[in-house]
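To whoever is on call:

I kicked off a structure prediction for a single chain this morning and the downstream step that reads the tokens threw a length-mismatch warning. I double-checked the sequence; it's 421 residues and nothing unusual in it as far as I can see. Pasting both halves so you can look.
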Amino acid sequence: MDEPLPRPAQPGGVVSHRPRRSWGRRLVWLLLVAAIIGAALWYFPRPEPQPKNAGRPAAGAPVPVGVTPAVQGDMPVTLSQLGTVTPLATVTVKTQISGYLVQVAFKEGQMVNKGDFLAQIDPRPYQVALEQAQAQLGKDQALLKNAQLDMQRYNTLVAQNSIAKQTRDTQVSLVAQDEATVKADQAQIGAQKLNLTYCRIVSPVTGRVGLRQVDAGNYVQTSDPNGIVVVTQLQPISVIFTLPEDNLPEVMKRVRAGAVLPVTAYDRTGETELTSGKLDTVDNQIDTTTGTVKLRAIFDNDQLALFPNQFVNVKLLVNTLHDADIVPNSAIQRGAPGTFVYVAKPDHTVAVQKVKLGPSDGQRIAILSGLEPGQSVVIDGADRLRDGAKVTIASPQPAASTAEGPPRPQKEGSGRRRSAP
């Protein structure tokens, strides 16, 4: 019987064996993962399913709402913009003569009036120049007097035919020259007196003094670019602001009628009123880049609430709607029907009523059409309503005209936006 042939040996004398998988190790890993998943499911339980209409009133249940009646009153038509406080006069005080600054009489930041003494330039060189001019005038006046006496003698001699007329004519010219010299001397004296007044530097406007640009002891000249100090007028003061060109016709109509348009300045938040003034002028052209026109308002600024280059919010009162139907801004809704309000009816239901909006003062808004005075409108809970929904009315809210707090600048027609009822 034949014996099985032996398997050939692998190179190098090593016999190849196929490794077996360790099923025990894999089983341990599977059990470990299952344990982790189970612990996680136990620690984070699945939330219980909520009812489909949880948080909403049950079908047919009345919805609690807050209402307020529409009232009649005056609604200001205002335009709100950002403006910059701009002084009516900002003057760099410069010397008009050259010399050493011997005195600085102002304190930085103080208020000064027009003509108040600010600084002094050494007047001695100009006083000497004045005295020299006065001496020259005396000398030339003496020469003129002598020439005039000679001319009188020449006139007598010419009448007697004792001298030629040419000699007399020459003397007449000499007298004219001396008279011109005297006038020049008098002008020079006036110039030196003027220089002496320039040695005393005074404020050209009433305003607030800025930081000192030069100290006493320095040599100052008319060519110094920074001058000695800058004086800025603060009372009155102006605010420059812009309006879109679409608002210009309404403003110009009121201006041409001679109306004084009030302007109120607020701080940067638009909540704190700073001061009030009036519209001063409108620029003569529209900026084609921005489509806006510049306007300037004037403020007395008695309390110095406005500071140069300050950014402020301004409200321009263009007109006032009298006996307008007014509701709170929170009553306005927007949806598929357009702009509307929910009107509470006597049968404790609400109805959608389309309205046309007018101007707003930030808290209240005028209704131009679609609402009657006295009708109650929903101002709280409208997001849960639809046309014909049943409601329960909470305690009546104050009428729109009695809303407290200063109105904040806001665009017209503000309100909530919701899906169609």
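Update from on-call: the warning came from a stale cache, not from the record. Cleared it. Sanity check on the structure: The chain is about 25% helix and 35% strand.
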